[in-house]
Amino acid sequence: MPESAQEPDPGLFGPASVTWQVHSDPMMWVAGIRALYLQALHPRAVRGVMQNSDFRKDAWGRLMRTARFVGTTTYGTTEAAERAGARVRKIHAMLGATDPDTGERYGVDEPPLLLWVHCAEIDSYLHVIRRSGIRMPDALADRYVDEHRRSARLVGLDPGQVPGSTAELAAYFARVRPELAAGPDARAVDDFLRRPPTHPLLTPARALLWRRVADLAYASLPPYAHRLYGRTAPPAAAVTRRLVRTGTILRTIPARVRWQLPPKHILGAMARLGPGSRPAPYKLDRGDAILDGPGRAQRGDGGDSATWRTPG
Fold it and tell me: Which of the four, 85, 102, 210, 224, has the lowest number of CB atoms within 10 Å?
């Protein structure tokens, strides 16, 4: 077949995936900050971050690099996703950390550490999206978790060793919970996320905007994370209302406006694949963007989203 007649590359996931729809939602930014809070509770994992970068000076860059990786692997071509994964693996292979108590030197690419980072991200993305009002049947939530065995492979994990359903994800967190603690490194991350350094002229904006977003991300953490950080968990119903309200407000911003932010991954994917590839989380409840296949939802009651939706 001539190259000009070949079908465009849908990438690692493609428009028929749950991931394609979920990752277009603006609440992903809140979810990303929640993931940072959660990841910081694994002492060995967060130590690798703190000993290999000046987190306080580069936290914004770290957040943007993560967002760029997620955008590339979700909406870029297969080649672009593979390149991004290779780049991450190469960087991780060169980095190590030292346990200050034992003197042990270990690599930041140890599978248990990569798995913790991966699971904290996927759990945060899924939790915030569903709890903020996007109706996602249980079967599609399981499918989302399973799809991300592909992204796990990109960072160097064996997909067969990565949770492939929400039940397996919950079991993983139950197993790893005894290893978690809010040590000095976690406290440093917490302090930064609550009060990030900024230009004096931007201090009012930090108080008005950033602190609200960071507080909401923190509030959405599981109860055990609040206990480890030492702050009282806010009432779950109140947090859910805040998440739904914030999601509702952010989703009123036209998608085409939001997607203009660099590096415009979604617009690039739509240009490559056509307007039918336009992602939208609401399609998850209707199921019109999700092709038939293993794990397709057979009911439309929103799964456990009923737990998180406010009355009325």
Answer: 102
